[in-house]
Design a protein that fits this description.
This protein is α+β, with helices and mostly antiparallel strands. Among the domains are: 99 residues, Nuclear Transport Factor 2, Chain: A (Roll), CATH 3.10.450; 70 residues, Nuclear Transport Factor 2, Chain: A (Roll), CATH 3.10.450; 142 residues, Roll (Elastase, domain 1). Helix content is 32%, strand content 23%. The protein has 10 helices and 26 strands. Strands 1, 2, 3, 4, 5, 6, 7, 8, 9 and 10 form a 10-stranded mixed sheet that branches. Strands 11, 16, 17, 18, 20, 21 and 22 form a 7-stranded mixed sheet that branches. Strands 14-15-19 form a 3-stranded antiparallel sheet, with no helix packed on it. It is globular and about 65 Å long. 52% of the residues are buried.
Length: 518
Amino acid sequence: MRRTLTAAVAATVAIAAAALATGPASAVGDPARAVDTAAAALAAVGDRSSTGEVYTVLRTVTDPDGSAHVRLRRTLHGLAVRGGDVVVHLDRSGRATHTDGAPPAALATRTPRVSADRAAQAAKSAFDGTIIGVDRPLLVVDAAAGGRMAWETVVRGWAPDGQTPSRLHVLTDAATGAVYATDDEVKTVLGTGRTIYAGPVRIDTTLSGTAYQMIDPSHGGNRTCDMRNTTSGPCIVFTDADNLWGNYTTTDRASAAADAHFASAKTYDYFKFVHNRAGRTGTGAGVTSRVHYGSNYVNAFYDGAQLTFGDGIGNIHPLTSIDILAHELGHGYTDALVSLVYSGESGGIDEASSDIWGAMVEFYAAAPGDPGDYLIGEEADIFGTGELFGNLFDPSLDGSSHSCWSLATPPAAPHVSAGVGKHFFFNLAEGTGATKYGYSPVCGAAADVTGIGRAKAEKIWYRALNVYALSTTSYVNMRAYTLAAAADLYGSCSVEHKTVQAAWNAVNVAGVTVCGGP
């Protein structure tokens, strides 16, 4: 059976090897050898003599030195494996150095005791809000839950606020019928253009006949449209006769649109020129930003395809600031790198990533009205009181987020557990104690940290997600992955490598220790 496994794996890894072989001759050496070594590495992860696992290549990352990283999706006896992604790391000769991703436990039975109809009813009961429809349950293997068989049901509808759409994935144990986990596809944040927040800025538009449209030909065709304070119906692309958009206030609907249009372009440029990724899909395609959504809607969301922004309390605080838009669009970029399960610590890392991207894009944009900082959503005044919404230097200041890891972190909601990742990143970039952006406390008895700067910190976080992270990554995993990324980029036992370790220690995340550190 192991021979059969190797053949199945080799057939799928061959796609990646062939793609790599089209690059420089030094990239992988002999493609056939790359297939064999990747297959052997997967077989060595655990005993798969009777697992019936099949792998499909999702994508590959090739480093400048010719080493490669092959990310694969897994099925087990024909069932999709949730959280079952695997990454095989190959050196420049095609030799597998190591593999990330543990195999799921063997299934005791392939026959569910609970019917799909019963699972669908349980999923409907778990949905808070108004249900529009329920997709047919899909039988899966949940690697994140020890390899149990489960029904995954997508319930579509509206959240309790009546304006936020929801596509809730509900996991029901196929043996007992109990709902044990949920996560929502729709990720929210409480959550020359004459913009409200960015100030006077240049935006790219398209001339169509005698009118200009908010369609950006320089950034993948980004579009910005008006929902006219409804939650359904067509979203009308903004047009203007003189290519001057807005009046710096909410009295002109184009002001908030100009903020969103500018921010989406800067987010596109940030990932393209800092991380060499062309659009969230990697194909260069842009995104649609829907503004003026709903009435008194104090939220923004990314639904997997487009961005949507409410106008806030009293419809006078549009959630279209640079950091909020980059946070939401950042979900799309993160999802393209690694599809993090949106619950537990992996969900927190997803949210932390978006706040990190929000802050980094704000610095990158350098807008005259909204200079870079480590605050989140402060321009939009989400609460209408001037109260601080979120930050990276001490996330607990919002009253709920975790600045330090504890046993309460793994079961916490993603927006709460995200604080640990955000605090780590701030420590890595700016250091602990008093900084120009805020005071960053040290957790427990950890030593103070001297930051390595944003330019290096953002590269380390991105590479950790792109090359190493898996869908069920935890904070202890992320510690190991950022250490690996720092070693790749700046050298083992470099200042950057050691600072990554110190920054995790400073937020109470223990784990891999390098270079004789504490």
